[in-house]
Amino acid sequence: MKVVVIQGPNLNMLGVREQHIYGPMKLEQIHEQMKRFAQENGLEIEFFQSNLEGEIVDRIQECMGDAQGIIINPAAYSHTSIAIRDALAAVQIPAIEVHLTNIHAREEFRRKSITAEVCAGVIAGMGPFGYHLAMIGITQIMNEIKAAQEAQKQMQQQG
């Protein structure tokens, strides 16, 4: 099973930008932790980061037929991008949205995520550990879907 991790604008600046808000950990360090989890759990994992909305939409669409789960931090696009929301809805691949900070405790304009509406779950405010929680969550969801598909296949073969 494959998980694609999609990181939105400015996340390439983690560890540099506003450390008092986002912490000192760099994106590469977060990805290394996620790689270890994937290896330990027999998952394939791929990472993508872009500051451009259209590239994020393209990468989500490319997941069709290639990935069984998406972990996404749309960053600022969470609050503004109908295009990313629509792409997540269109591919019908379970997605978990991650935010390093608690968006509900921040500025008013950050409190609503329109992309979250089409995600299986949202993890916010847990810092880099949120990505680990997302890995656990997406693994569980993918395993449940796989088990349901296998059960349905068995029922079709029997009947």
UniProtKB/TrEMBL annotation:
Residues binding substrate: 73, 79, 86, 100-101, 110
Molecular function in Gene Ontology: 3-dehydroquinate dehydratase activity
Functional pathway: Metabolic intermediate biosynthesis; chorismate biosynthesis; chorismate from D-erythrose 4-phosphate and phosphoenolpyruvate: step 3/7
Keyword Lyase tagged: yes
Active site residues according to the UniProt entry: 22, 99
Gene Ontology biological process terms, A to Z: amino acid biosynthetic process; aromatic amino acid family biosynthetic process; chorismate biosynthetic process; quinate catabolic process
Pfam families reported for this sequence: DHquinase_II (PF01220)
Annotated keywords: Amino-acid biosynthesis, Aromatic amino acid biosynthesis, Lyase
Entry-linked InterPro entries: DHquinase_II, DHquinase_II_CS, DHquinase_II_sf
Record field: catalytic activity: 3-dehydroquinate = 3-dehydroshikimate + H2O
Keyword Lyase: yes
Residues of the site described as Transition state stabilizer: 17
EC annotation from Swiss-Prot or TrEMBL: 4.2.1.10
Broad EC category: lyase
Subunit structure: Homododecamer.
Functional summary from the UniProt entry: Catalyzes a trans-dehydration via an enolate intermediate.
Family: Belongs to the type-II 3-dehydroquinase family.
Name of this protein: 3-dehydroquinate dehydratase
Gene designation: aroQ
